[in-house]
Design brief:
The complex is a heterodimer of chains A (351) and B (130). Chain A is of the alpha+beta class. Helices cover 65% and strands 13% of the residues of chain A. Among the domains of chain A are: 66 residues; 167 residues, 2-Layer Sandwich (Heat Shock Protein 90). The longest helix of chain A is centred in the N-terminal third of the chain and has 109 residues. In chain B, 28% of the residues are buried. In chain B, strands 1-2-3-4-5-6 form a 6-stranded mixed β-sheet, with helices on one face. The complex binds adenosine-5'-triphosphate and magnesium ion (MG).
């Protein structure tokens, strides 16, 4: 067998032989000395062998640990990648869902002016039919004719106004809807835009009896991603509707915009509802944290809000709430979003 | 000067040491990869050497329970075992219990290796529920 300690063993054998030779020639003192040396050498060699074995074993253990560590890191990285993919999918689904809600809101809202225009038009058609008949039979009186003129004036005015209203609704909805899907960057007037977004939520709010007050300086222009902002506001409002009040209770929401300096703005959304328990506060922005699991909540709403505010909108976000004291969410946003945020959104669009 | 007891608190990288010289019960437990092994084990060697000049009549029991140790600590341990072996050869009763977690084959093998040179010391391998 090949022995790494061959040379040492050979030296030891020489030393043993030397000791034997000395048996015959040397004096006892010298023999004892050499004997002790040989013993020490033997012991040292044994220890050396053992130590090499030890450190081999220890290094083997270390290598195993390293491999294990490497494997676990890979696992963790894979899991993270999968999670990010899932999250991305869920964000897309959430976008679609909020678009669906928007479309339902649009349908409801447009129904009213279109319905009025329709009944006015049919009323006008009936009156016109009667007028035609009377004219044909020669029984059309002067007073009847002037009554018809008044009806025609009223109804056509109403039809015009309501069609105008419907067209205006469609325009603003179209704006919000394309913003939501395209995540395009543009300049917009903040107050007008916030009003438009709230307008799209108005049917739901009105139905439940909630009031919203908007306090925002006029002429405040943002250069940012209005779609992201719309989604943030929609999620905050929907949360207040869903979580802050018991059935039948009505609430007062407020949106307050101030300008700490020329380049940034502070937007505070607040409700006066039941508030968020202190122990939930640190977790509400976590993905999948919800108190309505199995009841329509996915727990992604505020996570998406957080991602949009800190991502495309380039700002920061905080919450202030206590049980019975309502909740307020404070967004600090740059008025003009920085250039590099642009890249990420465009990259997202390409994907 | 008679020494009563040597105790060193364990740290993340050095073992807890408790040598109760009066009763002859000694123990070393924990991790052992001190920054400077010579500095850590030096005082232990000294105390042990002094004690072994006149060991307790009932002899010595040393419990060793290491989770991890480095090569320097292994050498230091061999030195301690050598001292105890010499003393046992001179007639002191010395018993060493090498504790290892029952699923830790490597620690068991270490124990077997350490016992290799011991003739007069009683060396027990003690498996502990891991
Ligand atoms: N305005 C609020 N008042 C009281 N609690 C709130 C309010 N906003 C959020 N919460 C609490 O924070 C939790 C997380 O909100 P988040 O929007 O992330 O999820 P969700 O609304 O439950 O589900 P999803 O938005 O995915 O449908 C909610 O389940 C609720 O407990
Ligand atoms: Mg929500």
């Amino acid at each position: 067998m090949n022995d790494l300690f061959d040379a040492e063993e050979k030296a030891l054998a020489d030393a043993r032989r030397l000791r034997e030779h000395l048996e015959e020639v040397a004096d006892p003192e010298l023999r004892r000395g050499v004997g002790a040396l040989v013993k020490a050498f033997e012991r040292s060699l044994r220890e050396q062998r053992r130590l090499v074995r030890f450190s081999d074993r220890l290094q083997g253990q270390l290598a195993n640990l390293n491999q294990e560590l490497q494997r676990r890191r890979q696992e963790a990285e894979d899991a993270l990648a999968r999670l990010e993919e899932t999250q991305e999918t869920l964000v897309q689904q959430e976008k679609l869902a909020s678009l669906g809600a928007l479309v339902a809101g649009v349908a409801h809202e447009i129904n009213t002016p279109v319905g009025i225009a329709l009944s006015c038009a049919s009323h006008l058609a009936d009156a016109t039919e009667r007028l035609k008949d009377d004219f044909a039979s020669g029984s059309l009186s002067r007073s009847e004719f002037s009554r018809y003129l008044a009806t025609a004036e009223d109804t056509s005015g109403l039809i015009l106004a309501n069609c105008d209203r419907a067209a205006q609704l469609i325009r603003s909805f179209k704006q919000v809807a394309t913003d939501r899907t395209s995540s395009e960057r543009r300049q917009f007037d903040l107050r007008d835009y916030v009003e438009e977004v709230l307008f799209s939520l108005a049917p739901r709010l009105r139905q439940l009896g909630h009031q919203v007050s908007i306090d925002c300086p006029s002429g405040l222009t943002m250069d940012s991603y209005p779609g992201a902002l719309a989604q943030v506001l929609t999620n905050l409002v929907m949360n207040s509707i869903l979580h802050a009040y018991d059935e039948g209770q009505t609430g007062q929401f407020s949106i307050t915009v101030t300008q700490p300096d020329a380049d940034s703005l502070r937007l505070v959304f607040a409700d006066d509802g039941k508030g968020i328990p202190t122990e939930h506060l640190p977790r509400i922005f976590d993905p999948f944290f919800t108190t309505r699991r199995g009841n329509g909540g996915s727990g992604l709403g505020l996570h998406i809000v957080y991602n949009l505010v800190t991502g495309p909108l380039g700002g920061s976000l905080g919450v202030d709430s206590a049980p019975g004291k309502g909740s307020s969410f404070t967004l600090l946003l740059p008025r003009v979003v920085r250039e590099r945020e642009n890249d990420t959104v465009e990259a997202e669009q390409e994907a | 000067m008679t020494q009563e007891r040597l105790t060193i608190a364990g740290t993340e990288r050095s073992p807890e040491v408790d040598f109760d010289f009066a009763s002859g019960r000694f123990s070393m437990r924990g991790e052992s990869y001190p920054e400077d092994a010579a500095a850590f084990f030096g005082p232990i060697f000294d105390a042990l050497r002094r004690y072994l000049q006149a060991p307790a009549p009932d002899g010595i029991t040393l419990d060793i329970e290491f989770i991890y140790f480095n090569s320097s600590s292994a050498k230091a341990l061999m030195n301690i075992l050598e001292m105890l072996e010499k003393s046992a050869a001179d007639g002191t009763r010395v018993e060493i219990n090498w504790h290892y977690a029952d699923d830790d084959d490597t620690m068991k093998e270490f124990g077997e290796d350490f016992s290799e040179d011991l003739e007069h010391v009683t060396f027990n391998l003690v498996s502990v529920d891991g």
